[in-house]
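Field notebook, page 280. I keep forgetting to write these up properly, so this time I am using the form the group agreed on. The chain and the ligand, magnesium ion, are recorded exactly as supplied. Prediction of the bound pose follows.
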Amino acid sequence: MTSFQHSIIGLPGSGKTTFLAALWHLLDANEVSSKFVLDKLVGDHTHLNTIVEAWRRCEEVPRTSMAAEVKVSIHVKETASGKKAVLHFPDLSGESFERQLSTRSCTPDYVGGFEGSGGILLFVTADGPSNGMTILDIAPLVPGEVVIEKPEEHREWTPEMVSTQVNLVDLLQFLQRLPFRPGIRRVAIVVSAWDVIQTPDLEPAYWLQRELPLLHQFLYSNPGSFEFRIYGVSAQGGDVTSDRKSDLVVKTPSTRIRCVGPETDPHDLTSPIAWLMSSE
Ligand SMILES: Nc1nc2c(ncn2[C@@H]2O[C@H](COP(=O)(O)OP(=O)(O)OP(=O)(O)O)[C@@H](O)[C@H]2O)c(=O)[nH]1
Ligand SMILES: [Mg+2]
């Protein structure tokens, strides 16, 4: 049986925990076709069971604090071949990544997470302001003169001062230097909250190029370090804090999930993970 240590990267609120909750339900419930299914229940699933309960009730999963970070392990079986594997994922807090960015350091455990044979799930939410706008982009839209504020007094640098894509590129650049082992890593970009996208049939790859061009260009121009694919994922199925919730709770839970991207069935959240593990 092969063991895959996958890594998850994502700033606060990028949809990491909701994805794990939906994945746990999908694997356990067998309601829709997926590339792999749950093989057996081994180990401690307290965290997965806690988050999946909220997910099944169409409630927001609790945000992950640094104190609540855990690793989960799932024994799965490939649907087509019957091959068995153990998948390990950390559920890290977005705050840990912010800390890594501002202190320029990370834990040995984090480094170890990138040593194994798995790949990386990198999360970014579609449910946020468009990134990368500068005052020059906005200027023509604002009537009157744009007043450029005077420089403020010195403030300590924080990751919120720069755009999401700059932070994500920085997090990926960490992996290109020691102590991380060199080599080509697979990265599945998961654009979460894909349900907020108004344009039907929008390609996740096009979304990435339009919304996060720096991240796209970085991945594209570093084939010696990263091989990437892009998926649009709605792990919740919609905004559970809105009126949509009443429509969502009556659905068969796994059919709320949407996954758009290469080689995937419409509800199959396992597709990005299967690609991380495949040899093609
Ligand atoms: N509309 C919509 N919202 C989503 C979806 N998935 C997650 N969200 C929302 O995104 C927010 C953050 O989700 P989390 O899964 O907690 O994000 P996280 O990356 O684990 O955040 P931290 O634990 O703070 O690092 C929550 O308000 C979720 O309800 C989705 O598929 N659709
Ligand atoms: Mg979380």
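OBSERVATIONS:
- The pocket of magnesium ion (ligand 2) is lined by residues 16-17, 63-64 (CB under 6 Å).
- The chain has a mean pLDDT of 92.
FOLLOW-UP: compare against the apo run.
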